[in-house]
Amino acid sequence: MAHAAELYVQEDSATAMMGSYGSAVRLVADAAAEILVLWATNQPAMRQHNSFVRQSSHSLSLDTCGHLLSILQSPSSMGTPGVTGAVMWDSGVVLAKFIEHAVDSKRLLLKGKKVVELGSGCGLIGCVAAILGASVILTDLHDRLKLLKKNVDANVGNQGNVRGSARVMELTWGDDLGPVFLNPLPDFVIGSDVIYSEDAVRDLIQTLRQLSGTHTTIFLAGELRNDAVLECFLEAAMEVFQIGYIDQAQWHPEYRSQRVVLFVLVKKLGQEKNVI
Ligand SMILES: C[S@@+](CC[C@H](N)C(=O)[O-])C[C@H]1O[C@@H](n2cnc3c(N)ncnc32)[C@H](O)[C@@H]1O
């Protein structure tokens, strides 16, 4: 598998192998053009959203790697101003099943790898990565950690068929990170629906930048909900990262949605200074 520094562009099209992901992806060259293409081809406003989750339910069950995960949600928190992550959206399920499918089809190796999940919310994706063999740190804001810990304990703690490990830690985007995150830098950083507010973009990118070394591969799933926010993120992230769009053909065949987008990011060479 190619590493960030070995990224190459095929001659006939703008695709490339990126980081430790074993399939070619389409390179994102221009943020505004990408948004136009995504909204024109996916027509998100015309599509049903949340096909894979029920936000009014207190738990979500998902079969992953032969393991029935039960993820608690807190529907009553949805009305609390400023609180997100208390219930799942489709992008989280899509990213979790994409990771499972990529491991199954040998395009991704998680066993023994260090993974940091940002804005874990209910924790589904980090739990799946741990079941697949990674050492995962699931992170979120301080007041989100109680539900997250409950879900990690219930789904990963002391389960015989979990190959890796999972722990929960507070991480606020933009804050300086401690050695547990940086030494060594993670092999993978993952996050779903973390691009949802223009105000948070700068801090999110600062954290992605701090967590990324030359061997780090980032997977981000997004909801096609707000074109301005996604464009703002892509434009700022492209200064630091090479971004690839992962085509739905590479997703889990039963978990595809026109309202969700998956990107892979690797740090550009020469971006070693972690300040934007
Ligand atoms: C829309 S939710 C997505 C949650 C989860 N990844 C999912 O897909 O269900 C966004 C998550 O990012 C977290 N978050 C928002 N701003 C943050 C910040 N500044 N630092 C750390 N986490 C943040 C929220 O607490 C929430 O869990």
UniProtKB/TrEMBL annotation:
Tagged with keyword Transmembrane: yes
Pfam families: Methyltransf_16
InterPro entries in the record: Methyltransf_16 (IPR019410), SAM-dependent_MTases_sf (IPR029063)
Superkingdom to which the source organism belongs: Eukaryota
Parts of the chain that traverse the membrane: 115-138
Keyword set, alphabetical order: Membrane, Transmembrane, Transmembrane helix
Identification of the protein by name: Uncharacterized protein
Provenance organism: Platanthera zijinensis
